[in-house]
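Q: Sequence in, structure out?
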Amino acid sequence: MDVLTYLLSVLAACANAVSSVLQRKANREMPPELALRPKLILELLRQPVWLAGVAGVIIGFLLQAAALDQGELSVVEPILVCELPLTLFLAAWVFHAPLRLREAGAAVGMAAGLAGLLFFLAPSAGQAEEVPWYAWLLASVATMAATAAAFEWARRGRIARDQREGSARRAAGFGMAAGCTFGLTAAFIKAATVRYNEGGLAGVFTGWELYCMVIAGVLGMFLLQSAMHAGRLVAAQPALTLSDPLVSVLWGVTVFGEIVRGGLYLLLATASGVLLAASVVVLSRSPAIGEKETRHVRGG
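A: Exactly. Output:
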């Protein structure tokens, strides 16, 4: 595994973190009645802060694609979990919320859990170029079913009248739905890089993977805006950050045939995953993401 893969993945996480904070800052100014309406996007297009956030999404996407060209799904996507602590620190600066020792310790625990997960699993290359059509179909249907379930759970939640407070259920549900869709998008990105390596740009544009990637990416962006509009980052970001790599790792192992170590290594990897998840829970409760200080940044 090339060091470049890790570097590109971390840079993608940085871009995503910047994007999340900027998009939430723009979305919280939007009225509640725009929830799940295309007009929300039209209104956001007038916000320079939101456009900067979208630029962050594009940069993160390109960096992620470059990382997937170098490495495996089950390696690249878990590294993107670093987006959550990065978002925490950036939100603390943008929203003027002080960080506490608990958050710093959780960030360290999260890094340790992620490092242990990658080290103990030690994923090896699969056969992304030899996936049968029925595997693509079944895995895509399963992913979209999970997306639909998270979306429906969120949709049934109460719409908060105060956008500064938001609805935790709707933000988390739409965030999870967006994460599942972005995980599917990552699978299509990986397949598109295989097309590129085999036939160059001509191979990419004549393959079906590129167009599925675009459709999934657009849907993911809509769901992401719905999450950012529905409530605080404290609810949306953990669901988004964890569901994306989880779906991607499942794709890597079950569809692309990426091999991970078993036995004691699997047990240690599980313990690392528990540490990672526990750290995420601590970070998700941070007031730095909670935006309690929003009155200080209105219009700024």
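The two ends are 43 Å apart (CA to CA).
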